[in-house]
Amino acid sequence: MRPRALVRSIVDASELGEDGVLALISDVLTSAPTTIVGPGDDCAVLEVTGPVVATTDVLVEGEHFVQDWSSPYDIGERAAAQNLADVAAMGAHPSALVVGMALPGHAAGEWVRECARGLADRARAIGAGIEGGDLTRSRGGIVISVTALGDLRGRTPVLRSGARVGDAIVIAGTLGMSRTGFELYDAGRMTPTGLAEEATSEKPVRELAEACAAVFRAPNPPLHTAIGAAARLHAMMDVSDGLARDCQRIARASGVSMCLDSTLLAPDCQRVAPLDELCRSTAWSRVLRGGEDHAFVATCAPDAIPTGFRIIGSVESASGIDVSVDSQPLTGPLGWESLA
Ligand SMILES: Nc1ncnc2c1ncn2[C@@H]1O[C@H](COP(=O)(O)OP(=O)(O)OP(=O)(O)O)[C@@H](O)[C@H]1O
Ligand SMILES: Cc1ncc(C[n+]2csc(CCOP(=O)(O)O)c2C)c(N)n1
Ligand SMILES: [Mg+2]
């Protein structure tokens, strides 16, 4: 099992200095074989052919992760995963990550190394390198900013604006698990050593809670499934803010209505429902409005569902209602609102 405790004692970033921290993580940051100049110079130099996709996501301590809940390795994996999911959601192959870290002076060098290891392991698993970054001081909490680049390999990008009337709405990956994990941590029911003793004694429920907590700490979206399906998909995005909110983004970008079918989402609800008593919202709400599993929601011709995707609804002509469930408009918040 990975070390989950924050190791503060070894050597502080302020003692190590920028060059010292860089030296500490340099062997962890593996560059891709095709890279011309990796970490160490003013810029990386990458071999690129054709269009490049580019995306950035910023993770802020207290907003996106909490050190009491997540290990530095988890946080590195999460930072990589959510950027890799954005690249895959365009139908592109991730090729490079560039990582900025703002660290409080007391952050342990070992913390940074573990975080870098999480980043590098996830990047390597999909064939991408960590090609550079920046280290600076933060007088607040830790901030990690990841820029990801990807290669379309001759394909056209899969946009949010491509959904067509008559398409099926399809999904690959889990829904509601990250939100369930978040609610368990937030209520103090999930602790670094597992589900609090008094929460439940049923083993399957404990295992489910652990699985949801793991998805919250570091989601594992099916990147290969999304990239492999791209040629058949008309529109796609990764679900970061909630299924309903992200369907609304596709609806608005494509000028269509996204009609979800609750019976087709029932398996997702049933998966997380055993934890209802320990959560503050219902399984249905966690599935519909919870984000951060980074599942892929897409649309495609109903007779051409790609491997690894399943139908959850249909695309209909714009009715003034962006997202409906069983023909009823959704009321209340559709998902996470970052600046609220
Ligand atoms: N500060 C900014 N400057 C320029 N463009 C931005 C800025 N912030 C967001 N955007 C653009 O707005 C769009 C939506 O951004 P958003 O961060 O919501 O992406 P997302 O993939 O939907 O969500 P998430 O950040 O949860 O992955 C993206 O195309 C993004 O590049
Ligand atoms: C400590 C803590 N509190 C709440 C959440 C939930 N959360 C934060 S950002 C976000 C959506 C994407 O936002 P952005 O657009 O900022 O990337 C969600 C669902 C969390 N991960 N950690
Ligand atoms: Mg996205």
**Percentage of residues assigned to helices:** 25-40%
Estimated share of beta-strand residues: 15-25%
In the CATH hierarchy, what is the superfamily of the largest domain? PurM-like C-terminal domain
What small molecules are bound in this structure? adenosine-5'-triphosphate, thiamin phosphate, magnesium ion
Helix/strand class = alpha+beta
Q: Helix and strand succession?
A: HEHEHEEEHEEHHEHEHHEEEE
What overall geometry do the principal axes of the alpha carbons give? Answer: globular
Rounded mean pLDDT is: 94
**Which fold name fills CATH's third level, the topology of the largest domain?**
Phosphoribosyl-aminoimidazole Synthetase, Chain A, domain 2
- Termini gap: 37 Å
EC number: 2.7.4.16
Function: Catalyzes the ATP-dependent phosphorylation of thiamine-monophosphate (TMP) to form thiamine-pyrophosphate (TPP), the active form of vitamin B1.
Keywords: ATP-binding, Kinase, Magnesium, Metal-binding, Nucleotide-binding, Thiamine biosynthesis, Transferase
Protein name: Thiamine-monophosphate kinase
Descriptive account of the structure:
Mg(2+) 5 binds at residue 241. Belongs to the thiamine-monophosphate kinase family. It catalyses: thiamine phosphate + ATP = thiamine diphosphate + ADP. The protein contains 9 helices and 13 strands. With 340 residues, it is α+β, with helices and mostly antiparallel strands. It has 2 domains: 13-151, PurM-like, N-terminal domain (60s Ribosomal Protein L30, Chain: A); 160-329, Phosphoribosyl-aminoimidazole Synthetase, Chain A, domain 2 (Alpha-Beta Complex). Strands 8-10-5-11-9-12-13 form a 7-stranded mixed beta sheet. It has a 4-stranded mixed beta sheet with strand order 1-4-2-3. Strand 2 (93-103), helix 3 (109-125) and strand 3 (129-137) form a beta-alpha-beta unit. The two termini are 37 Å apart.
